[in-house]
Amino acid sequence: AEQEPIVAEGAQVSAIDFERHMRQANTAAVAKAAVFGGIIWVLAYALVALIAAWVAPKRISRFAEDMKRGFWANAGIGLAGIVVTPIVAIVLLFLLVGYQLTFVLFSGYVFLLALSLVLAVQFAGAYVYALAKKQGVLAVTWQTALVGAIFFTLIRLVPVLGSVACAVVFLAAAGQLLRSIKHGVVERPVAE
C-alpha cells in the first residue's frame, strides 16, 4: 500500500520522484554457493573419514558393529550425554569450585562432538556399503569412508527426514563412543 508523503506546512518541496526498487534474489548465485558448499562438505567428510579409515580400520569396524547391535540404546545414551554434559559443566562453573573440571568437560564435549561426527559418517558408509553388497558384517575401508561422506551429505538434502536421520546416526555414534569410553573398549588390543 502506497502512502502519500507528509509535508510540514510552509515547507517548499520540489517534485518527488518515486522509484520502486524490488529486491530480487540472485538465484543463480545462491545455487552456485549451495553446490560449492555441498562439495566442500563432501570433501571435508571424505578427507576426515579416509584418514580415520587409514589410521584405525579394525577399531572403527568393531565400533561400527557394536554401534549397529545397540543402535537405539546408543542413540538414547548419546542424547543424554550431549544434553547433560554442558548442563553439568555450567553448574560446576557457577559453583566456582569446578572451573578446571568445567574446562575439562567442555574440551571433552567438543572432542565427543567432533569424533562422533567422524564415526557417524564411517558407520553410515559401512552400513550402506554392507546393504548394497549384501554383507552381514560392517567393515571400514576407504570405499566405505567415501560412501559415508557422500551418503551423509546427500541424505541431509531431504528436508526434514534427512536431518533427523543424520541426527539419529550422530547420536548413536556419540552413545557408542560414550559406552566405549566407559567400558574401556578403546584400550582393548586389536589383533592385526
Précis, in short:
By secondary structure, the protein is mostly helical.
Distance between the termini: 75 Å
The class by helix and strand makeup works out as: mainly alpha
Rg on CA atoms, Å: 25 Å
Which series of helices and strands comes N to C? HHHHHH
Question: What is the β-strand count?
Answer: 0
Weakly predicted, low-confidence segments: none
**Percentage of residues assigned to helices:** over 70%
Average predicted confidence as pLDDT:
85
* Number of separate helices: 6
* Proportion of beta-strand residues: under 5%
> What is the approximate shape?
flat
Largest sheet data:
none
Question: Could you explain how this protein is built, in words?
Answer:
The protein is mainly alpha-helical and 192 residues long. The chain is built from 6 helices and no strands. Helix 1 packs antiparallel against helix 5 and helix 4 packs across helix 5. It starts with 26 loop residues before the first helix and ends in a 9-residue tail after the last helix.
Layout of helices and strands:
Elements: H1 27-55, H2 57-69, H3 71-95, H4 99-133, H5 142-155, H6 161-183
Keywords, separated by commas or semicolons:
192 residues; mainly alpha; 6 helices; 0% strand
